[in-house]
User: What shape does this take?
Amino acid sequence: MSSFIVIAIILAIGLAAFIVGRQRAVAQNDGKVKPHSRAHYHGWWAFLLAVLPALLMLLVWDAGRSTYLGRQVHAALPAQAEDGSPINAQISAGLVNSLARGLRRLDADTQASLPATFAELQPLLAQKGVALATDTRDYMIPIAQAANASQDRLSLIGGVLAIVLAAAGALYAVGAVKPRGRARNNVEKLMLWGLLGASTIAILTTIGIVLSMLFQTIQFFGSVSPMNFFFGTVWDPRFAAAGSGGSEGQFGLIPLLAGTLYIALVALLVAVPVGLMSAVYMAEYASSKVRAVVKPALELLAGIPTIVYGIFALVTLGPWLRDISAALTGGAPFIQGQSIFVAGLVMGIMLIPVVSSLSDDIITAVPRALRDGSLGLGATRSETIKRVVLPAALPGIVGAVLLTASRAIGETMIVVLAAGVAANLTLNPFEAMTTITVKIVNQLTGDLEFNSPQTLVAFALGITLFGLTLIMNIVALAIVRKYREQYE
Amino acid sequence: MTDVSIDTMPVAAAPARRDIGLKARYRAERRFRIYGVLAISVGLIFLAIMLASIVLKGHTAFWQTTVTLPISFDEKVIDPQGERATDPNVLIKANYPKLAENALVAKLGINADDKAAVRKLKGFLSDGARVQLRDIVVSDPSVIGTTRDVEVLVSANMDSAFKGQIDLSVDQARRKVSDQQVAWMNQLKAEGVMAEHFNSGLFTFGASSRPETSGMGVAIIGSFYMMAIVLLLALPIGVAASIYLEEFAKKNRFTDLIEVNINNLAAVPSIVFGLLGLAVFVNFLGMPRSASIVGGLVLTLMTLPTIIIATRAALAAVPPSIRAAALGLGASRMQMVFHHILPLAAPGILTGTIIGLARALGETAPLLLIGMVAFVADYPATPFDPATALPVQIYMWANEAERAFVERMSGAIIILLIFLMAMNITAIVLRRRFERRW
Assistant: This one.
């Protein structure tokens, strides 16, 4: 029985329980006893009692079933397939699984009289649009059939059990409807658990990020030593052809880290002065009319996806700067189309609204009294800003700059398109350099082999990036929060 | 204390005021203001330049040149052996480009036996004509033997030439269209059969290696699936989490942990979510690569913090008097939240959700990692089928060398920006119309 039908039946039982439970609660209200909960709460409680345990059971059953089936397939595989190595057994089990999935596409008649060899089976499957690996072996067919059969059997048992459980829950809940029954409290307690569960997803996400990257990184450090990764100055991860296991490649983080920081620095050199000045102007000088126009425009700038900036750098700005530099020297261009300068400039423009909106909040949070005191003593407005407002806002601005820097370090699409892919170590801002994010994308697009260091290195880079930005974010958020409290 | 009245003071020329550098200070003040104006202009000018350059490059992508040809569906070309009744593959594999070529040869008045002239026609029509004519014949085999006017796509190079994007003063060996082809083009143009039409293929075609038959159809559907998944998952979960944190959570370590987590997740680079999706959803849970469902889940996790932060702000803005009134009338805390607070906070929540969705729609990096950089020619029927997304399609076209792809890419950016602008304007309008200040 397909799980879709089972879930539909369970939901139908739940709906019936809701209606009956509600009806009973209405019928019991004869006006003599004041009911504790309103009728629909009884209905909802009946619905929840019918549906939740059944769905939970289905979930557990499903997990147990796949483990059991996996073991069954493993046990049935003949010894020669195991070959002693666990990887071979894994591959064979994978083949059996895809074969079993393929067999499900065939109609009943064909399934009843399956050919015994894979060579005969393959065209039948190909007709149904199922493509299978050619190293599927003949002996796998009966194993796959057996796996399918026991999967059907287990699904049927699980489905029936779940439906019985749902019916039992519904009957119990409907029977328990009493005028003084505390259905509302029960329902609300469950809702509270649901709300709590939703808010823990944030924690689960963080745990998921850390664990997933940690596992792959540890695996990566099994083949490349952490010393070579963190302090290596050469990045040259040769892509080994599948299975050859030959060339090792070098995975040095330093050139990537240097490129990341360099480009972020150029971006901050553009974004911080410009963003800060626009925030000051908007907060201290601009009339409300100007604000009404400029603020949405800056928000628009912030809302443009970064890939658009990247393409602008790649297609328009980069070639233009290259041609200009070629015209200046009259010969070879000294600015590369893809370079630190181009990527940093465009990223800086992208970050202007980030800096300005963060520091706008901080500047407006500086108390009026400080300004009035300074102006009253005869300072001009710009002197007030430079000597009073900005120093008072400094911690907050530092926090804002840190947050911006973490955005710059984690930014991907602009550098993928505009910074280049060559892992150089250079000081010339008009040369190409590459970043951590670019290399993560490079290592993970295309066909992957999950066990090769060439793929796993992306996770090591990812956890480095995550750690770097996490520290900056925590420090920045702490500074901003502390600063905000200071003036509240 | 001497008491000197003003009248008795000697009236003398006012003493020269001490130079306290006031002029210099006012100059500094003016300079400072100018810096501010300059800073704002830098951002706005860049915005203007960027939008202008994209529109200039991309607006031509919305037009596509076609030739209207009287195609005679000749049985001798389609089905020379007369086997179509028994073998359905005949109609699929037939030599359709020949039909288009014959029609073009006839239209241009070239002698069909002049092989050299016919050969020069190569690259005039799009290879997409094969699919176009095949679909006509397969859907209605009775056209065989008849003649019908069909608008056939021309190749990308002819399209560029027709739009005047190819410099015809260059020697013909160094450009992609020959003088002969340009002459034919002008002949057809004069006859009025070769013309530009609105390029609906840009919105309906899937991936293709030829610019003129590639479009964003698959990407639009993939993005739509992902946005639907994000909306269905992130909105309820985000609202539930915010309600818990804002209305029910006690101040303790656990709540602090959740809050710190959410604030940090909002600032985690998006590419890290891509790594999470690859390791957990694709590798560990075995979900299909390149599928919209994985993209949707990754974007959901990425959007959640945005929605939670916006929702919490909206909930916190509802004044405590409403809470007190509801509780005072005997509502439970749950009833207070769901019957009173949530409806009042709804506009703020909606605004935050739309802004979060807009960010998710433009996000590219995490989708690259979970394999949405895929050549997908067929529409994805379900979210479990391979698909691409709008920004990923833009990225893929950016990696193509031909200029016709750059044109399509810019057109796609225009469409993406229109979508985003519409969403952001909706959010602003919602905020203006429904936001209540207490």
Chain B touches chain A through 88 residues (CB under 8 Å). Residues 84 and 90 of chain B are 6 Å apart (CA to CA). Chain B has a mean pLDDT of 85.
